[in-house]
tRNA threonylcarbamoyladenosine biosynthesis protein TsaE (Parenemella sanctibonifatiensis), 381 residues
Amino acid sequence: MRSTRRSSLPARRGAADPADAAPVVAGAPSTARAVVRARATRADIRARAGGGPVVTDRSATPVTRAATVSDAPAMLEVIRAAFGARPPVDPPAAALGETVESLRTTVLPAAEGGQGQHGILVEIEGEPAGTLLLSFEGDAARIARVAVHPRFQRQGIAGAMVVEAIRAAARAGAATLELVARVEFDHVVRFWRRRGFEEVARSGPNLTLRRALPVVVQIADADAMHRLGARLARVAGGGDLLIASGDLGAGKTTLSQGIGAGLGVVEAVISPTFVLSRVHAATDPEALARGIRRLVHVDAYRLGSADELWDLDLVDTMADSLTVIEWGEGLAEELSDQVLQVLIERPTGAEGRTVWLEAGATPTARQRWSRQVLTGVVESL
């Protein structure tokens, strides 16, 4: 086993939340992975629609909840204000044709004669701020009516709501999430592309955008987390990069220990708390046949930038290694085009862990870590 001494670096500060860069025409609830933060705006700027000043109070916390039939008037208020503030288009946005009754029917459970769509409502100090509709057909999910009231725009609500929609759809077992965007609104299309959506169809001014969804697995205990690591190791190949994220004590090192077991690592795999990286030789014949000669285990907790991670020269050994980087989210994605993101969460008030498995953004990563591969890993636990 080889290790690299950790330099005396300050604790890593959180990276800027991508939700802060959301455009002014989408909506968003707060989640564990998308913390809503207000952005500074001029108090004298008036909202383009809906009246009142743009809200600038950073202390106001968005409250996200499932919408019910009784929320239809609030949802309609947000939709009309948000879509009405857009430049006119031809044909007009279908969202402007919504009514209280149509929204009630949309969110009314199917057992009661409605469409049974999942509605999300975001409120700030009791005022409706954002809304979104999520529907399912087979293994596909669709989002629509994504809207933030103009008074609450530029507070990250849009990006966080998209994260919540992705998570809700993944929890429900959907394989893909799609939406329709207008080609005239280039900044909106860019917003969706930054979140992994790609164009799959075009009809007149409408673009259909789609992205794959994470595979979700519930892990009961440390033994199950160890098994998950071993299963991932047995489908990995040389050049693969696993980025493990989660709070302190979530189970990242336990996952890494399972990966080591799956590769036939002989010595103990321990957290590189006081070193930058540890290198362990792989001995499993199948791992060696798949091009993995070693496990490179990295702890990026105290690194402050991607440049500091690049200074470790991980790319020099990556081709014939399986590299696992704890705390690498937002830093390590550019090191390889064969990335698997592994997010480990501890649900509040619940035992066990929720693990989200998602291929990186490159075509190579999506092929290497396809949904078929990841569901096979999960089903074998």
Summary: Residues 157-171 form the longest helix (15 residues). The chain is about 25% helix and 25% strand. The two ends are 29 Å apart (CA to CA). The chain has two domains: 18-212, 215-379.
